[in-house]
Structures are given as C-alpha cells and as structure tokens.
Amino acid sequence: MPSEVALKHFVLNGGKEFLSHISIDSVVFGFHDNQLKVLLLKMNSSEFWGLPGGFVRKEETVEQAAMRILKERTGIEEIFLHQFGVFSDPARSNPFLQRKMFTDKGVEIDEGNWALQRFISIGFFALVEFSQVIPKSDIFSDECFWVNLEDANNLMMDHETILGKALDALRLQLSYQPVGYNLLPEKFTMPELQRLYETILGHPLDRRNFQRKMLSYNILIKLNERREGVAHKAPSLFKFDLERYSQALKEGL
Amino acid sequence: MPSEVALKHFVLNGGKEFLSHISIDSVVFGFHDNQLKVLLLKMNSSEFWGLPGGFVRKEETVEQAAMRILKERTGIEEIFLHQFGVFSDPARSNPFLQRKMFTDKGVEIDEGNWALQRFISIGFFALVEFSQVIPKSDIFSDECFWVNLEDANNLMMDHETILGKALDALRLQLSYQPVGYNLLPEKFTMPELQRLYETILGHPLDRRNFQRKMLSYNILIKLNERREGVAHKAPSLFKFDLERYSQALKEGL
DNA sequence: TCAAAAGTGTTCTAACTACACCCATGG
DNA sequence: CCATGGGTGTAGTTAGAACACTTTTGA
After folding, report:
1. How far off is chain B from A245, nearest CA to CA, in Å?
2. Rounded CA gap, A237 and B78, in Å?
3. pLDDT level of residue A1 (50, 70, 90 thresholds)
4. A212 CA to C11 C1', in Å?
C-alpha cells in the first residue's frame, strides 16, 4: 500500500527534512518628543542592532510568547500587540555570524546545534507608552535603547525588512482602527494626537479637518482642563473613551 | 559572568524548551456555479475534513512551501497566495486523534515522535480558477474535493477557525485590492464578476454602481464579444488588463 | 505688543447611494 | 409577446479637502 509506505517514511524521516525552528521578532513603537521611536538591542560584541525577540515555549501560543518576551524587555505587563508577518528566507540569518555571537562570549557551539539553524520568525508590532518602558537587554545583547525611527539602521539579519513591514502594518491599522491609546499618556491634547498621526503616516495633516474627524469617531472625551505652562494658547486636554475605543478597535472606524 | 551561563544554558537546553514545529494550512478558494468553494481533504479513516497543508522544507520559504504543497493538491504551478495568520494554540491538535490517524493506517508511531507534537501553522489563502484544478489527495487523506463554503464544516483541529480568518482576510483584500483575475476564467461578464464579489462579501450589490466602480479602476478591457447561448440579453465579455491589474495589486485601488 | 499656536466654520469637490427606463433575448 | 436580465444616466447625499479669521498666551 503506497500511502502506508509514504506515511512511514514521513514519520521516520520527516523530522530531518521538515523540522523548522520558530522565533519571534517584535517592533516596539513608542512616541516621545514628537518622534516615533523603536526599541532596539545592541547585539553582543557586534556593530549590529536587533529587534527584541525570542523563542516560543512548547506550552504557549506565539502571542503569549511575544507578550512574555516584551514584558522582559520593557517591564510592561499588558502590551498592545499585533501579528503582521512571517519571515522565512532560508538565507535570512548568516550561520557564521550567528556562531560568532556565541563564541565571542566564550560559549562553544557545534555546527549542528539547533541555535544555528534557519529560524522562521513571526513578526509582531507593539505600541507602548514611552514613559512606562524600562528597557532591559537580553542574553544576546549588551544594551537596550529607544532609537528614532529614521536612525534605526545597521540592523542584523532581515530586521530592517521586518521593521519596514511593521510600519506598513501600523499605517494600515491607522486607516481603519484607532491608534493612540497605547502610545500616548492618559491625558493628551489634540495637537499631540495629530503629531502622532503625522509621524506615523509621514506627512502633515490639516489641523481643522483632523480635529473634526477625530471627534466624529466619538472615542474622545474632552476634559475641563488645559495643558499648563506651555507657550502660547493653552490647548485642551482629552482622554480616550475606553469603551468606545475598544469597540472601534473591534469593529473598525 | 551571568550572560555566559545563560547563553550556555540556551545552547544546550533551548532545543528542549523552545523547539516548535511549523506547518502550513491553506484555504483554497474557487468560484463555480455562482458559489464560492473551498478545497478540502477527507482525512484518512476519519469523519473529519481538513485543509490542504504540509510542512516546510529546510531550504525553502513558507511561501515556496505553500506553493509546492498546493501544486501537489491542485496541479496549478503559479498560484495566487496570501499569508494571513499564524495559529499556535498548544491545544489546537489532539495527540490522541493525531496518533490514531497513523495507527489506523498500520503505521506505528511512538508517543514522543515529532509528528505528534504541537505544530504552529502558517495560514495562507489561495485564489484559483475552479476549472483548472485537478484535486489530488495526500498521504493523510482519502479524497480531495471542492466543497461549498457554507457546507465546509466538520473540519479537523482548528481548521474552521482558519477558514473563518481566511474569509475575513479575503474580504479585507477585496476592499482595497482587485480580486477576480485568479478566480475567473480569462473572459467573463460583468454580472459574473458581480456575483463573485457578492458571494465573497455575502451581500448583494447594486448592478449599476458596481459596474461604474469596476470600470473606474481601469483594470478591465471590454471585448467586442458577448456571452452566447444564454437566456435573455447577451452580456458583454470582459478580460482583465493584466498590467494595470498587477499594478493595482501592488498600489491598492 | 507681537509671534506663535489653538480654536472654530464655510465652501467646494469627489465619491457613493438610490433609483428608473429602455433594450435584447429565449421561451 | 412577455418575463428576465443586461445596459446606461441622473439626482441627492455625504465625506473629505481646501482654506481664513479670531483668541489666547508667554516672551
């Protein structure tokens, strides 16, 4: 029976032919000083930077893994996460450089070790409130920093591609779901929200049309307070109406 | 040096803690008799149906793997594919049922065999021209059939979830990219294109507005031919302007 | 008192919706 | 000859874009 033979071959040899390893890479966006920032790690004894990432435990989903990994890097428990792509080019990692990362730290690793194989990486983007993040490096990196989006270059492997796709996904999300609750402090002004949108989209927006549009979504609550101690006319503060905001997240705008 | 110890532990034990297996599941959509259809496999000695799927070889990307797998299932070389999600619930497969699938075919498999572990599945949807498909089952299945979308139930594992998400992704795509070239024969009428859109969206559209909108995209070429031998007024035939169509795929509508 | 940013309203345009009449064809 | 579906045009509505003046405040 040919199918039985094929099944047997699959059970016995499939592991060698098919086993792929999986990892997670996350693009963490923050907003500060009117700039969109990305959390990066300075890789061990290397000129390269990398995205926060890690591996999936056997008992968790990829979302849980991303959440766990980002809690370790940022200190934030409940992080806004969105899966946006899979990166699986067999040449995405360079086994020579991979191995160097270990040997430079005095860790011997054989050529056949699992950690040097091709990893298929699941890409997530995360939105966090800049001021709440306490960056912490991992075992592969010396330091963990916020970097301005435009300065995020010299990234390892295909992390520049991943970052680019994350930005595309964020822009797409902006067009049919609200963004902001996860990136801004609790109270914010309309101009601040507008800067955020402009920064993500990469082009200026009309002040009046922007305000009208935002208000029409009914996800904002205008507070009876103004931003104090600021030059020129004091702008009103707003906060998000959480119930309507999360409804808009589900149903779209 | 703590990071060295951690790195060593990672290299030696990470394989046990972290190694996840990866698979591919594809939702193949076809259109026939004014009905949206999905290609399903009747699983070996089981009441369940499954999506066409498979595993990723070490030297290929997930897209190449999906392409290869679907060529085997459909006979089509160049298939339109889109990756839309990752399915990784540790409970998505039932090891008992998985094992039964092998033992029922007379293939012994130990409990620890790789094929019984949790697989993280990458979801793709594919659009194919119904008449060009020659369905062919795989080693896990007895038969391969087209099934109407609404009759696609009794699916194994989380394949109903995957199918639902694929449909969401297809609907989303419909809203900002053209769909149709991959699902319709070379020549088609405007009402046929409209049925396709209505079937995917699940609601009727206005004939006149639909036609105007489609024509405004400039991706159609009106032919000097009409559909022959049909009841009532013979509708005009169209074909896609391939150059503009693929441009619209890239840039959106 | 002036420069710079906030707050607000109107007009124009383009896209979408709703809707009706005539035409061609097979039964 | 009539029922059915195809082909086309128009008016009304709505969302978005463009744009200018007044108000507030710190320097």
Report:
1. 21
2. 54
3. very low
4. 16
Q: Which helix (H) or strand (E) holds B145?
A: strand B141-148
- How far apart, in whole angstroms, are the C-alpha atoms of residue A207 and residue B9? 54
Candidates B10, B58, B113; nearest CB to A20: B58
pLDDT confidence tier of residue A2, bands split at 50, 70 and 90: low
Q: What are the tens digits of pLDDT across the range A196-253?
A: 999 999 999 999 999 999 999 999 999 999 998 888 999 999 999 999 999 999 988 8
Tokens of B48: 């369940």
Asked if pLDDT for residue A165 goes beyond 50, the answer is: yes
3-state secondary structure at position A158:
coil
Instruction: Among A25, A43, A61, A118, pick the best mutation site for testing chain B contact (most B Cβ within 10 A).
Output: A61
Residues of A in Cβ contact (< 8 Å) with B86: 62, 83, 86, 122
* Closest listed residue to residue A181, CA positions, set A221, A240, A126, A238: A240
A15 Cβ contact list (under 8 Å, min separation 6): B114, B115
* Window 162-201 of chain A: CB closer than 7 A to strand C: 189-191
Residue B141 φ/ψ region, left for φ over 0, alpha for ψ in the -120 to 50 degree band, beta for the rest: beta
CA distances A83 to A26, A162, A173, B231, Å, are 9, 12, 12, 49
Supply the angle between the helices A207-216 and A190-201 in degrees, to the nearest 10: 100
pLDDT at A134: 98
Could you give the 3-state DSSP secondary structure of residue A194?
helix
Q: Which of A103, A139, A144, A172 to mutate to test the interface with B (most CBs of B within 10 A)?
A: A139
Question: d(Cα A205, Cα A202) in Å, to the nearest integer?
Answer: 10
The number of beta carbons lying within 10 Å of the beta carbon of residue A91 is 10
> Residue range A82-101: average pLDDT?
93
Q: What is the percent of chain B where pLDDT is above 90? A: 75
Q: Is the CB of A232 under 7 A from strand C?
A: yes
Instruction: Supply the pLDDT for residue A153.
Output: 94
Contacts of A85 in chain B (CB under 8 A): 83
Any strand C atom closer than 7 Å to B218 CB = no
The protein residue nearest D18 (Cα–C1') is A206
Asked if the model's pLDDT at residue B113 lies above 60, the reply is: yes
Whether the pTM exceeds 0.70: the reply is yes
Which of A181-190, B42-51, B107-116 is most confident?
A: A181-190
